[in-house]
């Protein structure tokens, strides 16, 4: 998404067999690195639900989730049982 020199990224849940820019199951947030400050909107409950179902975030999305504190929350929930 976005346009030339104006990046804007949707964070989506997609099947691993789908092409990178192809079909996706659900949009769970977006990231706008151009705005000041950087705008990161995540739907925490949906992301936690997908992670608990076994979804694996890409390296870039994992870094964004760490920045927002979601990965820490996920690991606390996973290992507190």
TrEMBL record:
<dbReference type="InterPro" id="IPR000307">
    <property type="entry name" value="Ribosomal_bS16"/>
</dbReference>
<dbReference type="GO" id="GO:0005737">
    <property type="term" value="C:cytoplasm"/>
</dbReference>
<dbReference type="GO" id="GO:0003735">
    <property type="term" value="F:structural constituent of ribosome"/>
</dbReference>
<dbReference type="Pfam" id="PF00886">
    <property type="entry name" value="Ribosomal_S16"/>
</dbReference>
<dbReference type="GO" id="GO:0006412">
    <property type="term" value="P:translation"/>
</dbReference>
<comment type="similarity">
    <text>Belongs to the bacterial ribosomal protein bS16 family.</text>
</comment>
<keyword id="KW-0687">Ribonucleoprotein</keyword>
<dbReference type="GO" id="GO:0015935">
    <property type="term" value="C:small ribosomal subunit"/>
</dbReference>
<protein>
    <recommendedName>
        <fullName>Small ribosomal subunit protein bS16</fullName>
    </recommendedName>
</protein>
<keyword id="KW-0689">Ribosomal protein</keyword>
<dbReference type="InterPro" id="IPR023803">
    <property type="entry name" value="Ribosomal_bS16_dom_sf"/>
</dbReference>
């Amino acid at each position: 998404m976005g346009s030339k020199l104006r990046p804007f990224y949707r964070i989506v849940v997609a099947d691993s067999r789908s092409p990178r820019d192809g079909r996706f199951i659900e949009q769970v947030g977006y990231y706008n690195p151009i705005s000041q400050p950087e705008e990161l909107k995540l739907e925490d409950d949906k992301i936690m639900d997908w992670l608990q179902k076994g979804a694996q975030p890409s390296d870039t999305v994992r870094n964004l989730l760490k920045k927002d504190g979601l990965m820490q929350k996920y690991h606390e929930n996973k290992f507190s049982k």
